[in-house]
Amino acid sequence: MRRIVLSWILCIVLSIQVVNGWLTANNARSPLLSILVVSTCCVSRLHGYLTYLALRMPLKGTRPPPGSPWPMPKEWNPTSDLVTFDPDNFRFSSNLMNCDIVIQAIERYTPILFGYKGVKKAAGLSPLTELKMTISSNKCDQYPRMAMDESYELSVGDTAELTANQVWGMLRGLETFSQLIFYQDGQIFMNKTRIIDGPRFSYRGLHTDTARHYIPLPILKKNLDAMSYNKFNVFHWHIVDDQSFPFVSKTFPELSKKGAYTNKHVYKPEDVADIIEYARVRGIRVIPEFDTPGHTHSWGKAFPELLTPCYANGVPGTPIWGKYAAYENFDVTKEFVYEFLGKFFAEVKEVFHDEYIHMGMDEAYYRCWQSNPDITAFMQERRIEGNYSKLEQYYAERTLGIISDLGRKYVIWQDPVENGAKVRDDTVVMVWKGGNTAHEDHWNSYMEKIAPRGYNTILASCWYLNYIKYPPDWEALYTCDPQDFNGSQAEKDRVLGGETCMWSEYVDGTNILPRYWPRASSVAERLWSPKIVKNTTDAMYRIDQQRCRMVRRGIPAEPILDGYCGDYDWGFGDVDTPEVDKPPTCTGGFRLEGRITLLVLPLLIVFVL
Amino acid sequence: MTMSSFVGIILLLIAVEIPGSFQHDRGHSKFRGPQVSQTAGTPWPMPLSYHTQATFTYVDAGEFKFTDVDESSSCSILEEAYNRYFPLIFGRRPETLFFKSSFKAPTDAMTELMVKLEKPCKDTDYPMLESDESYTLDVNGNQAMLSASEIWGVLRGLETFSQIVYQSNDGGFVVNNTQIVDKPRFNHRGMLLDTSRHFISVPILMTNLDALAQNKFNVFHWHIVDDQSFPFESSTFPNLSEQGAYDPETHVYTQTDIKNIIEYARMRGIRVVPEFDSPGHTSSWGYGQPDLLTKCYTGSQPNGQFGPVNPVPNSTYVFLKSFFTEIAQLFPDHYMHLGGDEVSFACWQSNPEITSFMKKMGYTSYSQIEEYYMQNLLNIVGGLGKGYQIWQEVIDNGAKVRADTVVEVWKAGWEAEMEKVTKLGYKTLLSTCWYLNYISYGSDWMAYYGCEPFNFNGTDAQKQLIQGGETCMWGEYVDGTNVISRLWPRASAVGERLWSAKEINSAFLAQSRLTEHRCRMVRRGFQAEPITGPGFCREEFGGV
């Protein structure tokens, strides 16, 4: 009895949310309409999730109906009419059925839609039997690009249709479609809906540092899954740094042989290819970063001649503790460095397919260069004595030239530009300072300094997920808008997007996924959805729904509110069996029947041991 | 610890490269390679007396066994421990080990650990606050002997033995000549887990019990219910979870689940102390037990809101007696935690029944009525023959409690509170400095490590009353997805503070050992997160 009453109460609550969700997306609806929706919905007996404690202890904000998408589409028009699906009688069709991206997407999304134990079509509703996917370009693109078209339109009515200009839009639309589905008492539902969608920014990046801690391949892949569930489209792979060099180069195998933590903590060419392919079919670009001329200590293990000998008391290779180590930064005056980089990046070009390479160039502190008499002499010769930003500029010009000659484009961190170096006009500058207390200035002051100089920019400052504090901190991530700085419209238009970063001093395979998710989802909506979608009290419940959706799909996304997800909560059913050779597996979806599991489990564990 | 081992650790630290410059713009230190080197085969927490030499012996994984000196003193607790520790020492799945072991142990390799248990153990033994966990461990050449008075000491010693055996680069398992005499500094080394704000599944609780045992914790303080949900399935009052759990079918602990948890913990020498917090933090009780909670009023009318347990009617105490009788039978530990924290008076103030009762009793403050409630509850539980653990507010409000009461100090300003509570003569626990739900960037374990429970003004007799402490994980922002990685190895820092001698207190000296310990936990399958900066484990979670 209680359940029925509850479901009716929920029905009313949820119906209000339908309209509210609508309001958020479309910004205008009449109250009359909401009454209409409430009444029709309750007639159709829509059940809701009892997910929140907040039903008993009300929190502010409006709760979305089940099957609310994240990030919020540009236009989302759900109706109160429901449809259902029959898992045994449903097919995806497309005009590009021979395209590998389409084929693999169907293979991925079929279990996401219907893979949960025992779900079946809802009684009393006629099932939709097909999602018709039309890609109007009629072209099976191979690699996602900066300029790809990710827009799509989706309509779910008596038929379901997804149309997109390119396969990339089809992927985004399919993700949205998969989020509209919800399950009640094992039955499958979807509200009839019309969606017109496309991203606000073309660059929506997520950065992983695999040098301070090695991140195992299965974890990187899980993370790519989660990225696709949040419509991120760039994996910025900060693959090497001072601490280790896990990238295996065929041209210079000594780099990882000597620079990796161990001979197993490496990414071999086939591993990198595996990651790129995994990302590609999800519409995610892989941009590698080989950070130079600073952050290169691990390169020096195999090629010490790349690094600048720092001087003390006239002796090269002598550290002054607190100032510099024995060797730091590439010695940018040496021709050897450029010959080396020419060969190295020729290989990088072959291994990575994206049109962009991230060239780093951050934190190249001058003190070691300043101590080195050969560098001083070199600068005197070029009449730039004492002006180290000109030395940085010289290095940038040479290395970006190498990349340009290879036919690739480049992203760099803000530092050289901030220091006054002039870099090539087509350089994309990533702004990373000013997001935390370590910098005096707020990020927008850096943006205001860099944007007028005509570069395309990407903002990362406010989205450093490695910094943690007592939750909730997702709101601060959510409300940072990359165009909120003083500048002309043209300058704002040159903001290509943003990126969330995870520097890995304190993360590895054990904790990186719950540290990313769902905090990175905040950033995902900021970068995808229209600027006006910024109400945190409304977003709170929708992002929680997204976190439960991720948990259901096998991503250990941590909680941001009290409450629970469902019988697929993490640690239900099969234990996340602690085995070092196994990534955290999806524990969601299934609950082993009855208590017997829990009863025999300790015995089982003892037995296995 | 001997000079020789001190010197060893210091040498290891020197091996760490000293930073060239400190640039913290990106939060990066400019250490190169691993920030902290790892020890090999050192124990965590540090034993009371630990002498180790550079000479080592191979341990033959193929032949190795545990041998009872006197088989008649053994019991199932010990036999199961042997089964557990074999794979913990040699790897559950050898193929996942960094060094593939095609290694053939030499003929003089160690093949057994002799285990001498003085007081025979029984299959039915439960660990207690007063249990003796001391042991000695002597490894000399290929001979190894572990002796303890009680089974609980053997369990601790087995853990230590499993930690000092390590894999060398040739793939062989080795152990250094070592003499250990060990016992805990504190009897009560606990961890609180809150399963109300978020439900934590039984398998994850069990995983955590394994981790607790490997850090020599001995109390699982199970904060099982709270405002948010009531996952405890009572046989006497099934409505409590039927109405109060997040989901009465999936998000509950059945009686069988609880028995399994207690048994799993017992096998590892861990007590399970359940907490049923009242009179505050009880919203979730109200759904299944109407009229238990105080009705809040706006003006002269109830407003539909509920406050703490209603301390006035007799029915409250009839219910409590019946409920805690069940708890006393289900949980074998002598102690149960009765909560008593954070009672808000606002609702009581609004309620005319409470007001008239206070008049009748001549009470002038609401803490008096709180005391009235707690006193009744304490009498009920005391009458069941149980001891209790309570939060500090109960004492602050002046309730009279049993002499064997354990008072848990959790608020800021713990130094003054510890002084006060011990002056009153109560056994005391500290938890203030070990709230692991609070997170911050970087190596926050050092602050946990540095918190010294004796740092308050008091006589030696007062300090003798300190039973230990508890590290707490309140559940607002953790569930199965992140609870293990958030707990470990940060809780390990607390583990050493509570087990090891007071003088073992340098985080700088501890960090290499802690780094090894965390990698050991990762090798054993726990999601123990990195907390000492950049570096690596030979075996990584997710594989290498």
From TrEMBL, chain A:
Keywords: Disulfide bond, Glycoprotein, Glycosidase, Hydrolase, Membrane, Signal, Transmembrane, Transmembrane helix. Disulfide bonds join C99-C140, C310-C368, C548-C565. Coiled coil: none annotated. Belongs to the glycosyl hydrolase 20 family. InterPro entries: Beta_hexosaminidase_sua/sub (IPR025705), GH (IPR017853), Glyco_hydro_20_cat (IPR015883), Hex-like_dom2 (IPR029018), HEX_eukaryotic_N (IPR029019). The active site is at E363. One of its GO terms (molecular function) is beta-N-acetylhexosaminidase activity. Residues 1-21 form the signal peptide. The keyword NADP does not apply. It catalyses: Hydrolysis of terminal non-reducing N-acetyl-D-hexosamine residues in N-acetyl-beta-D-hexosaminides. The chain crosses the membrane at residues 31-55. Its EC number is 3.2.1.52. The keyword Membrane applies. One of its GO terms (biological process) is glycosaminoglycan metabolic process. Residues 69-180 form the Beta-hexosaminidase eukaryotic type N-terminal domain. It comes from the Eukaryota. GO terms for cellular component: lysosome; membrane. Residues 201-530 form the Glycoside hydrolase family 20 catalytic domain. This is Beta-hexosaminidase. The lineage of its organism: Eukaryota, Metazoa, Spiralia, Lophotrochozoa, Mollusca. SUPFAM superfamilies: (Trans)glycosidases (SSF51445), beta-N-acetylhexosaminidase-like domain (SSF55545).
UniProtKB/TrEMBL annotation, chain B:
Its EC number is 3.2.1.52. It comes from the Eukaryota. Keywords: Disulfide bond, Glycoprotein, Glycosidase, Hydrolase, Signal. Gene3D superfamilies: Chitobiase/beta-hexosaminidase domain 2-like, Glycosidases. PANTHER family: BETA-HEXOSAMINIDASE, BETA-HEXOSAMINIDASE A. Residues 43-164 form the Beta-hexosaminidase eukaryotic type N-terminal domain. This is Beta-hexosaminidase. Residues 1-23 form the signal peptide.
